[in-house]
Amino acid sequence: MANNNNNNNKSMEEIGRKGGQATAENHDKEFYQEIGRKGGEATSENHDKEFYQEIGKKGGEATSENHDKEFYQEIGRKGGEATSENHDKDFYQEIGRKGGETTAENHDKEFYQEIGRKGGEATSENHDKEFYQEIGEKGGKSRSNQRDDD
């Protein structure tokens, strides 16, 4: 019997590449979307939450090894822009409320004191005396207006 591994001196890689090219020439984007959808459905029927967590973890690790801080800043910016285009003020208020409730359930007074201290230090490093005078004046006016309304 002839050596099937040789297949006229073509490597499996070459055979696969040519087969992929021929398939691509015969099918459009919708074809690939449809087989992708079917594959996703079949996979979801055969795997549980832990499977997806594990492949997500592996994918995240691989991505972090191949990309730098700027990559994550860029995708974060793009995601933020896309989200802001698709959601209104009420959406952000709701997720902020939920996040605040969850954070409050998971942290104690010392946690808030520590993040307050760090925030104060960062703010003081980035602002001058005039900044504090301006926000103090605004706060004083706001408090005065509240008293007048009472």
TrEMBL record:
<protein>
    <submittedName>
        <fullName>Glucose starvation-inducible protein B</fullName>
    </submittedName>
</protein>
<dbReference type="Pfam" id="PF10685">
    <property type="entry name" value="KGG"/>
</dbReference>
<dbReference type="InterPro" id="IPR052590">
    <property type="entry name" value="Stress/Virulence-Domain"/>
</dbReference>
<feature type="compositionally biased region" description="Basic and acidic residues">
    <location>
        <begin position="25"/>
        <end position="150"/>
    </location>
</feature>
<feature type="region of interest" description="Disordered">
    <location>
        <begin position="1"/>
        <end position="150"/>
    </location>
</feature>
<dbReference type="InterPro" id="IPR019626">
    <property type="entry name" value="Stress-induced_KGG_rpt"/>
</dbReference>
